[in-house]
Amino acid sequence: MEEKQTGERKSTVRNGNLSNARFFEAASLRGIEKGKVPPDFGCRAIFHSWEGSMNYLKRAEHERLSENSAEVAAAYLGMIDGLRFTGLVSIGAGEGIVDEQLFAKHQPAFEYYVPVDISRWLLCTAFDRLSRLAPIPWVINCDVENLGPAETTLFNGLAGARLFACLGNVLGNTDRHEQFGFKAIGQLMSKPADWLLLSVAVGRFERVKDPNETKNGFHIWDMVFAGVSYHREPEVRGMRADDFDLILQTDEDTGSSSIVFIYKPWNQLAFTLRRYDLKPFLNWLDRKMGFVVERFELLDTGAGFDAGTFLLKRR
Ligand SMILES: C[S@@+](CC[C@H](N)C(=O)[O-])C[C@H]1O[C@@H](n2cnc3c(N)ncnc32)[C@H](O)[C@@H]1O
Known about the structure:
Blueprint: E1 2-6, E2 9-13, E3 22-25, H1 43-48, H2 50-64, H3 69-79, E4 87-91, H4 97-106, E5 112-117, H5 120-130, E6 138-141, H6 149-156, E7 162-166, H7 179-188, E8 195-202, H8 220-229, E9 244-251, E10 256-263, E11 268-276, H9 278-287, E12 291-300, E13 306-314
The structure holds S-adenosylmethionine (SAM).
S-adenosylmethionine binds near residues 94, 119 and 170.
């Protein structure tokens, strides 16, 4: 049994899995369920839905077996060597496997762990995985693209210096312009000793690329179909890749190139895959978003882009 705090109101819900932490559900996510999904939800519809979250778990399992996942994890671990924190706040925690690795190496440094995700289902998985390693004061179910004052207050209450981790290209799949996610995280980093460990894909889409052409792409369509189906009742049957327009967009300011998936029958945003040109991206982070890049590392994935890991501070 755990407490579910909804703004000022506290109620108790039975959830089975989340036993010791307080579960916070952001106001912006309340009432969202199949058939009642905001129209601007693409990637967010995938991960808010049970089916999309389960499809992600299957895909993540495959990616963990890919040859460069160990190198990427090593880059994350190396980047925070020698730093001091009190807690780990994982934004887009997913199933918590990467966070578990951070704990395995740096555990004495962390007095608590706070998983943050739009998926209630993945939050349960992260909680189960990490709860034996650290106290988990809060499990935060929110949308990083749309943080409200209640969740900001909650983050501000977390003790000591925080390592905010936003790993696995979470901000490279946002539905809205990425400034919203970066601004929100920047505002959460309210203490001078806070750090952000970030990963995004570095490179450029030169042309529209079907996910099936990418190394680990074969599960992406299942996730995209699940996200679109979440928008409406009844269930869409027999959805196919041909039902989508894939559009290439570039943004000189951020240095990004994106492939945006639109479900043609409903003109519905379904998914965004984004990569960044390094120089304009670093410039934008610094000049427009107020982040100082202290360290970064690029790893060639062999799939036409680099896995970029960045350690950032607020200016
Ligand atoms: C690719 S996974 C990354 C998981 C993990 N951090 C890792 O590195 O393996 C992306 C995660 O971000 C979450 N996510 C996506 N959009 C989000 C949003 N707008 N707000 C909060 N979480 C989000 C998804 O539910 C998913 O768990």
